[in-house]
Design goal:
The structure is a single chain. It is built from seven helices and seven strands. Strands 4, 5, 6 and 7 form a four-stranded antiparallel β-sheet that branches. The chain has a three-stranded mixed β-sheet with strand order 2-1-3. Among the domains are: 105 residues, Potassium Channel Kv1.1, Chain A, CATH 3.30.710; 49 residues, Alpha-Beta Plaits (2-Layer Sandwich). Helices cover 38% and strands 26% of the residues. InterPro entries: BTB/POZ_dom, SKP1/BTB/POZ_sf, T1-type_BTB.
């Protein structure tokens, strides 16, 4: 039985070989241009032209059938043991040159497949996207620093107008009269101000550059 099966396989291979020779010798219009791929159990239908967009890719070599002896399923589709989930974006990239992903699809998964099928331009696109994503993730939202200042009513306007750059007025709390100057009641206020501190990815805090002003520090000369 074993010998018969081997002979049968050899006949099949030679038939496939003949098919290829016949394909190339016929006018371009009648060439078999449709290719079926069975990726992890899901069948994709595409053309040789699409698969050969990327000359160096595994898929291009596969459908040219040069050095790759790939298994086929009962329908004649090339069997590829990879995850079909990520194959859609790969095939679409070969069709129109753009990377289109559903919002739930992980770019890392598509990158794995792009590397397996050796599709250079797509690998570069995904790596760039992932770098951009990393960059936006590491831009930590600003922290707010709050300060509470106590002042009297007549000092308020002066204090708010001389607040240094970056500080924002948040809230005013009236804490009632606490001093008597003669017959005059002085109302006391608590003034709440805040400032944003931007955290850079390395953990150092920096103030927003457009608001930061350099103020001279007075040092006593020794």
């Amino acid at each position: 039985g074993m010998r018969m099966r081997m002979e049968g396989e050899e006949e099949m291979h030679s038939a496939v070989g003949l098919g290829c020779i016949w394909d190339t010798s016929t006018p371009a219009g009648t060439q078999v241009k449709w290719v079926r791929l069975n990726v992890g159990g899901t069948v994709f239908l595409t053309t040789r032209q699409t698969l050969c967009r990327e000359q160096k890719s595994f898929l291009c070599r596969l459908c040219q059938g040069e050095e790759l002896q790939s298994d086929r399923d009962e329908t004649g589709a090339y069997l590829i043991d990879r995850d079909p989930t990520y194959f859609g974006p790969i095939l679409n990239f070969l069709r129109h040159g753009k990377l289109v992903l559903d919002k739930d699809m992980a770019e890392e998964g598509v990158l794995e497949e792009a590397e397996f099928y050796n599709i250079g331009p797509l690998i570069r696109i995904i790596k760039n996207r992932l770098e951009e994503k990393d960059y936006t993730v590491t831009q930590v939202p600003p922290k707010h620093v709050y300060r509470v200042l106590q002042c009297q009513e007549e000092e308020l306007t002066q204090m708010v107008s001389t607040m240094s750059d970056g500080w924002r007025f948040e809230q005013l709390v009236n804490i009632g009269s606490s001093y008597n100057y003669g017959n005059e009641d002085q109302t006391e206020f608590l003034c709440v101000v805040s400032k944003e501190l931007y955290n850079s990815p390395n953990g150092l805090s920096s103030e927003p550059s457009h608001k930061a002003k350099v103020r001279p520090t007075h040092r006593s000369c020794l």
